[in-house]
Amino acid sequence: MGKAKKVGARRKTSGAPAGARGGPAKANSNPFEVKVNRQKFQILGRKTRHDVGLPGVSRARALRKRTQTLLKEYKERDKSNVFRDKRFGEYNSSMSPEEKMMKRFALEQQRHHEKKSIYNLNEDEELTHYGQSLADIEKHNDIVDSDSDAEDRGALSAELTAAHFGGGGGLLHEKTQQEDEEQGKAKSRKELIEELIAKSKQEKRERQAQREDALELTEKLDQDWKEIQTLLSHKTPKSENRDKKEKPKAERLRRMLGKDEDENVKKPKHISADDLNDGFVLDKDDRRLLSYKDGKMNVEEDGQEEQSKEASDPESNEEEGDSSGREDTEESDSPDSHSDLESNVESEEENEKPAKEQRQTPGRGPTSGKGRAGKAAGDELPYTFAAPESYEELRSLLLGRSMEEQLLVVERIQKCNHPSLAEGNKAKLEKLFGFLLEYVGDLATDDPPDLRVIDKLVVHLYNLCQMFPESASDAVKFVLRDAMHEMEEMIETKGRATLPGLDVLIYLKITRLLFPTSDFWHPVVTPALVCLSQLLTKCPVLSLQDVVKGLFVCCLFLEYVALSQRFIPELINFLLGILYIATPNKASQGSTLVHPFRALGKNSELLVVSDREDVATWQQSSLSLRWASGLRAPTSTEANHIRLSCLAVGLALLKHCVPMYGSLPSFHAIMGPLRALLTDHLADCSHPQELQELCQSTLTEMESQKQLCRPLTCEKSKPVPLKLFTPRLVKVLEFGRKQGSSKEEQERKRLIHKHKREFKGAVREIRKDNQFLARMQLSEIMERDAERKRKVKQLFNSLATQEGEWKALKRKKFKK
């Protein structure tokens, strides 16, 4: 009975902790891997934490941890690639950052001034020879001043020769005999040699000083001659100017009258084979050019030679004109020629050019090229121009001239009044920028607008802006401020404002070309952006001309924010209005319009095309700026084509905005009304195939953008907890050996007990680490031994094979 009770009690004690543990032990675990920590007595109220353990799992976990940490350190024990931070005071918290930086700077300077090699004792000393540095002698900068100097170079003086090679006799004794008598005592041979060496050094220094003085005087003379030459080049005699002006006029009259050109044919100039091409010209060249005509020798007359010399002057002028014309054509073909201002007006201007040239020069045909026009411009224009003091002077200089001549006049004004030539030229060129800006505005308001000249003048405006940025910014701000004041006055008087003319739009375009647009704030670009936004919000769209101007402003907006990628709500609103007025009015369009568009009314269907023939004949092309000027009313077919072109430009701008604003979290909310118009209305309309493809590509790009934000939702309210009473805590004293001790004593005993427990645990872990390392070392030794045995066995096998082959060969020899 007693044994049965003990067994039952044992089962109960073993089952109670397992039931109390509950979850940690798996249901299908191996019972042989589970270790139950038995207790002698069960104490009520005591919680047991380690009643059941898994030694196999804990051992595997410890082995895995040691493999990842201790084994890695053991394998890298002989490696020295350790990164050490040797920055001074990096981990010294007592030093401030300023002290660290000062000390590091001092150490760096000290390191630079230290000698690089401990064996180079003369590192800071400069070696000399005859009073000169060896570094200067190696440069071979000695200049020979005269032939006598060159002859004496490298020769020893008579005194030095007598002292070194004459044995101290002869000349040396003759020269020093008088000095010995005067001083009363004889000098030694060493003193005499030192005197000779000092004297030779002194002569060498004197010759060097003379060479340096001569070199300085030569450089000064060259500089003075250059200054005189520049003055002579700027001031030409009046007679030469008169001849240069009269000769092209006579040549032009001869061509107009149709006289024989063989009379003044330029004769080839004789150039000798011995000519040095140094610019030296004789006063009169008596040599005659030998030529043959009809098998006989032809000798030129003296009068013809003089005429050929005189005719060389206008031809040189023509060459200068050719070079300037070539430079202009190169500038026009460069990628920075701002060709985006060009429009379809160029073709009309090119068609009108031959007629104008025929009217100006009846002697020439319409086939004359730009090179000949550049020649004529270079011949007729003077080389120097005074800076204009008013806009009327500049307009009188440029009005009535061709594009090449106008550009040449502006270029020569800048070169003749460069700030480096005179003191007051800076103020003159600053005024010139404002005059050119006003001239550009006048060209934009002409009928038709001369956009090609404006495109070329932008280069000169850019150069002046780079030279004088402050005055240029003031001039552009004044123009923009004037335009904004006019718009505000129109709103006060009429209640609404119209979009400005082409001159203000071109001013805004030039502002983007002259100043950086990616800055967060700029004194010129920021007001220009405000002006653009005011144009898109305050000016209602009442005609096709307003639509063209508004689309041009949208293009400018995208160019302004191409780098900074700022979000422009006015731009998106205007594009939404363009798409809205291109669709027929229905009950619900899925969007709400704001100013400057109206949902219903006269202009609510401004871009709707109802004529099928015009839709079929429309071809996609760039939208011309001549329709923005409004100087000529378009026909009905042209108006329908303009409507379709405006819609194409609006879709292209919207397609350009999609990748730019695709990274915004609110992209899909912004593009929602535009997507609704494209999907529901524009796809159903009978537009050309090109517009439908553009619409579909824009929709696909919109849908391909990722959703970067989640829609806002109301937060779910948490359940209100029930009111609970705070439990009353009562301290229970432990009776026994700890009774009667104070709080400090109990804390001390607790710390001692904790320290003892941690110490035992650390010793146990160190013992296990040593055992782990011993096992690793033993495995390495066994691997090495096994490798050695394998290699020895392989060697024995190879030797046995060789010996067998040798014995077989030997037996074969004996048989023979």
Automatic annotation (TrEMBL):
Residues 1-34, 145-381 are annotated as: Disordered. Keywords: Nucleus, Ribosome biogenesis, rRNA processing. It is found in: Nucleus, Nucleolus. Residues 15-25 have a biased composition (Low complexity). One of its GO terms (cellular component) is small-subunit processome. Residues 172-227, 237-259, 281-299 have a biased composition (Basic and acidic residues). The keyword Nucleus applies. This is NOP14 nucleolar protein. It comes from Mandrillus leucophaeus (Drill). The lineage of its organism: Eukaryota, Metazoa, Chordata, Craniata, Vertebrata.
